[in-house]
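Please, structure for the following, as tokens.
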Amino acid sequence: MELRQLTKHQEHVVKHVLGCQILGVYAQAEHLHFLLDLPYLWSVDADGSMALVQDEEAIRGLDVPEDVAAALLAEAHALREVGTAATIQYFTHPPRDIGAIEDVTLYVTGTEIHMHIIGDADTLPVAWQGTSIYVLEG
């Protein structure tokens, strides 16, 4: 794996997510949306772009039906209130609890880019290739 530098914009977004915890993940084919323990959604796209936007605004901006957007907002609230005991349909729990985010690194392996979200307890690997982005289980 070859280390890849974050862009200035990526660095800026990452600085804002340091110290946060990931409570849930909403996956779309070209986007991953990480629900943080503060009322923000950290979105990472398959082209490597990132955004950090308040829940309501971010979810309203998703290309989903109105009822799905309402359910996502309700699930975001529930995940913050009761954690893993929340009943969720659209968000998923991260494959592991990484704790507070301490760093984010990018690596290139062939045609795939890997992003490691490094927490104080574990690491959550994400990969993207072409127009697909996904959380790696292993």
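The radius of gyration is 14 Å. The longest helix spans residues 66-82.
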